[in-house]
């Protein structure tokens, strides 16, 4: 007799916690993920600034789940879901396939949002993937190297100006780490520039940094950023980004900031798959493309489909606001979905609606300085908050090896003046643009063995320019 089939899209916090909670359940699980690793996204900025290696925050999925026999891991990008026949269409590397399910858990995370200006991404990478972090690492460290070669003071200043867009946790942490590089780690290593003269500019359209942390912690974070030498521009809207600078509008009017290194840390949106599932299921989405779910995290009219984390929109009855797109929501949602599935298999009555327990929010600003909001009353800042941040992040890193090497690298970076992962290559800096020009290599290889051009279907030809991941630029 065939066991109950659970398909999980996404190996982030939500998907992984759901799978682990189903370890002893009488189910067969198929995990579909676009990468072969689980990404600990909160530490991406430390990869981008040379503190950690990518392997320390991205353990292989098969290694993480090696002791769980009821899981089949498949590499690929879920393209569509047939909610009537319960079939997922997946595009793997050079091969398409389908996965059938009885219960579906959708936890594919979020993508970077440029608020309708997707062309900004050409010159301002986001912070959502290992590829993003490695590209930014190459750009950040490369900027100091190229600045050292310049004889034109204006060109030198452009290369030593770093602009971070978005004053949420990721943007604040990124700006703080670049400032530490410039003022603490790199001085004395260059003959022709003083890294301490670098400008680090943090921009946000709202009027506060760490806007969701409350006025007290927001003010403390702003003060610490100023002490680090970060220029904070609030109530400032980005209107254009190009290769050599960024244009903004504020109360002072229109302004251009010459800069060769821009980082986009503002805004997230659900991936296109969310809208496809919503359309197929007859569900609604919000402005960011997230699916409006029932209190039990299922899609209305489809109790067999759970949506978790950044892909769902669910109002928290205690606050009257949608649940935040943070790791804890995904983790708790994954456990809840697994418990619900196990209850259904045992034919138990439906349980209580999902209830999110807010364990608080944390953000580092620099070494020995962080802010932490815990519950409705506890607000911490400074060294104690930083220690709490370290402990929490080490706890949630997957695998003993990752925790051990991460602590060692933190000691090198925070107690000493070194950066363990400063190596950056041209490939990391330019691979994204090269792939954009070249097109998806798997599809090019597939078409190399295809029939002659006049026999290739429109669908096959379109794979070179579409394929959902890396389009080929029209010449």
From TrEMBL:
Instruction: Kindly state which reaction or reactions the protein catalyses.
Output: a quinone + NADH + H(+) = a quinol + NAD(+)
Q: Where are the transmembrane segments?
A: 383-400
What InterPro entries does the record point to? FAD/NAD-bd_sf, FAD/NAD-binding_dom, NDH-2
Keyword tags? FAD, Flavoprotein, Membrane, NAD, Oxidoreductase, Transmembrane, Transmembrane helix
Q: Where is this region: Disordered?
A: 450-475
Q: Which residue numbers delimit the FAD/NAD(P)-binding domain?
A: 5-334
Organism's domain of life?
Answer: Bacteria
**Which EC numbers does the record give?**
1.6.5.9
Q: What class of enzyme is it?
A: oxidoreductase
What PANTHER family does this protein map onto? EXTERNAL NADH-UBIQUINONE OXIDOREDUCTASE 1, MITOCHONDRIAL-RELATED, NADH DEHYDROGENASE
Task: Please report which protein family the annotation says this sequence is part of.
Answer: Belongs to the NADH dehydrogenase family.
Annotated protein name in UniProt: NADH:ubiquinone reductase (non-electrogenic)
């Amino acid at each position: 007799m065939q066991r109950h089939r659970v398909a999980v899209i996404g190996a982030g916090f939500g998907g992984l916690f759901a799978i682990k909670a189903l370890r002893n359940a009488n189910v067969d699980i198929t995990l579909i993920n676009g990468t072969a690793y689980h990404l600990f996204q909160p530490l991406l900025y430390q990869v981008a600034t040379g503190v950690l290696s990518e392997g320390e925050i991205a353990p292989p999925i098969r290694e993480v789940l090696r002791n769980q026999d009821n899981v089949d891991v498949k590499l690929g990008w879920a393209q569509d879901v047939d909610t009537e026949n319960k079939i997922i269409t997946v595009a793997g590397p050079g091969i398409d396939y389908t996965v059938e399910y009885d219960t579906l858990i959708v936890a594919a995370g979020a993508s970077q949002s440029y608020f309708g200006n997707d062309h900004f991404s050409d010159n301002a990478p986001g912070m959502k993937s290992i590829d993003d972090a490695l590209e930014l690492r190459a750009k950040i460290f490369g900027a100091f190297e190229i600045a050292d070669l310049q004889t034109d003071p204006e060109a030198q200043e452009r290369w030593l100006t770093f602009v971070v867009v978005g004053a949420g946790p990721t943007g604040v942490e990124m700006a703080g780490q670049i400032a530490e590089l410039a003022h603490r780690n790199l001085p004395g290593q260059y003959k022709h520039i003083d890294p301490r003269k670098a400008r680090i500019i943090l921009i946000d359209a709202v009027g506060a940094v760490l806007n969701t942390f409350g006025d007290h912690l927001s003010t403390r974070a702003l003060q610490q950023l100023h002490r680090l030498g970060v220029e904070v521009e609030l109530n400032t809207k980005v209107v254009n980004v190009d290769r050599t600078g960024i244009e903004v509008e504020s109360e002072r009017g229109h302004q251009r900031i010459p800069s060769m290194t821009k980082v986009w840390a503002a805004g997230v949106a659900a991936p296109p798959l969310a809208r496809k599932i919503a359309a197929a299921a007859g569900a609604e989405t919000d402005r960011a493309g997230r699916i409006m779910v029932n209190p039990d995290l299922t899609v209305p009219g489809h109790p067999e489909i759970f949506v978790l984390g950044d892909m769902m929109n669910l109002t928290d009855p205690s606050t009257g606001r949608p649940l935040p797109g943070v790791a804890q929501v995904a983790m708790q949602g994954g456990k809840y979905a697994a418990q619900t599935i196990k209850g259904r298999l045992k034919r138990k009555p439906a349980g209580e609606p999902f209830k999110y327990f807010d364990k608080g929010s944390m953000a580092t600003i620099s070494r020995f300085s962080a802010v932490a909001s815990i519950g409705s009353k506890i607000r911490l800042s400074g060294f104690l908050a930083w220690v709490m941040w370290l402990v929490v992040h080490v706890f949630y890193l997957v695998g003993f090896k990752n925790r051990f090497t991460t602590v060692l690298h933190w000691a090198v970076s925070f107690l000493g003046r070194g950066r363990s992962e400063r190596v950056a290559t041209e490939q990391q800096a330019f691979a994204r643009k090269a792939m954009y020009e070249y097109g998806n290599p798997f599809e090019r290889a597939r078409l190399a063995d295809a029939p002659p051009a006049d026999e290739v279907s429109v669908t096959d030809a379109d794979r070179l320019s579409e394929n959902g991941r890396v389009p080929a630029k029209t010449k």
